[in-house]
Each structure stands twice: as C-alpha cells, then as structure tokens.
C-alpha cells in the first residue's frame, strides 16, 4: 500500500499536525485495509455521512469499543475549499485519520485513478493497492462495522498479533478459572492413594 504514496506525504490528524515520514507511512499502512474517504465538510451529503463514518471507524479502532484495533487505516482526500475548512472538519474526526495535505495535486490523481466523480465516496483497498470496493458508502450505512470482516477476508491480511493475543487471553482465562475447574473436574482418589496420603500426613492407618 505504501507504494501508492511513494514520494508523497500525509498529515496526521493530531492536535499538532505532523507530516508522516516515508518510514512512518510504511508502518501506518502495512498489512491494513485502507479506506480513502473523498468528501468535504461543506457538502450536505458528506455532512450526513461523516458522523456515520466516524462511528464506524471508532467502533473498529477505539479502545473504548475493542480490545485491539482492527487492521484499518483511513486517509481523508478532501474537496474542501480552504485549508481552514479541511482542518476544522478533521478536528471533529478521529485522531487516527490521515489526510492528503490541502492543495496537494495528488488528490486529483487519486480521484482519477479510482474514478471518483461524486462525494461522499469511500474506496476500500487491499494492502497491495487492489480495490476491494469501489464505493462503500452504502455498505457502511447499511451494514456498519460488520462489513469490515468481509473486507478483511478479501484483503487476506496477516494478523500478526492473533496468536500472541489468543495465548494471552487463554492464559488470563486459565488463571481465573483454574481453581473452579480443578474443583469441578476433581478426580476421585483410589483407596490406595487415600491411604498413602494419610501416611504422608502422619496419620495412622486404621
């Protein structure tokens, strides 16, 4: 995916915007489903859709909703008329969003490449840049976060943290429930074992 942005920069949507370096871009985009959101803070249809997209993104990436963020990244490609309008819109959106800098001609290149003629539009891409969904606006509206599972399968992502997280979760469950399971599944001792146990404890056998 980083190849799509070779030689380009994206801004991070933080309190103080930072330009992502090529290395940071590679880490940010690697092994993730990429959403290119074409929109504008002034477009009436975009104003209706933006809160839906914001909630969609947060429910998949924010620790308030999920233990581990989904392998998802979003880049805002704006049609805002001024830099101030773009900045104002981004301030109301999740901090993990990235954006093509205002005034960058690369925005037009992306529109042409993915055939975007109207906004809002959400192009869903595999890590290798192949298109999964040409415009997922209706799907996001209808299905919500559940549609990410289909994209994840289509993207053939490698979940590098899955086994580690699974082992950790299993360890946590085991540490909490082990005493109960040992009690529930306690094996009855044989008479010989009981007799041996009493001798080891210093008891006289009858």
TrEMBL record:
Which domain of life, per UniProt? Eukaryota
Read off the InterPro entries from this record.
Answer: RdCVF, Thioredoxin-like_fold, Thioredoxin-like_sf, Thioredoxin_domain
- Taken from the record, one Pfam family name reads Thioredoxin_8
GO biological process terms held by the UniProt record: photoreceptor cell maintenance
**GO cellular component terms attached to this protein's record:** mitochondrion
**Domain (Thioredoxin) ranges:** 1-163
Which PANTHER family does the record cross-reference, listed alphabetically? Answer: NUCLEOREDOXIN-LIKE PROTEIN 1
Protein name as annotated? NXNL1 protein
Species this protein is from: Rissa tridactyla (Black-legged kittiwake)
Q: Encoded by which gene?
A: Nxnl1
């Amino acid at each position: 995916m980083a190849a799509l942005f070779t030689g380009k920069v994206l801004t991070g949507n933080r309190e103080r915007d930072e330009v992502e370096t090529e290395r940071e871009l590679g880490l940010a985009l690697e092994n993730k489903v990429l959403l290119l959101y074409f929109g504008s803070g002034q477009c009436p249809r975009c104003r209706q859709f933006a809160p839906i997209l914001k909630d969609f993104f947060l429910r998949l990436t924010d620790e308030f909703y999920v233990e581990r963020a989904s392998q998802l990244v979003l880049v805002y490609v704006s049609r805002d008329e001024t830099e101030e309008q773009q900045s104002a819109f981004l301030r109301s959106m999740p901090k993990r969003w990235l954006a093509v800098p205002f005034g960058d001609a690369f925005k037009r290149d992306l529109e042409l490449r993915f055939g975007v003629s109207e906004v809002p539009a959400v192009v869903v891409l595999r890590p290798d840049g192949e298109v999964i969904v040409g415009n997922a606006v209706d799907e996001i509206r209808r299905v919500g976060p559940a549609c990410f599972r289909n994209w994840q399968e289509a993207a053939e992502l490698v979940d590098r943290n899955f086994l580690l997280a699974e082992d950790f979760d299993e360890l946590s469950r085991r540490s909490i429930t082990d005493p109960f399971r040992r009690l529930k599944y306690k094996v009855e001792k044989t008479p010989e074992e009981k007799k041996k146990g009493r001798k080891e404890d210093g008891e006289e056998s009858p």
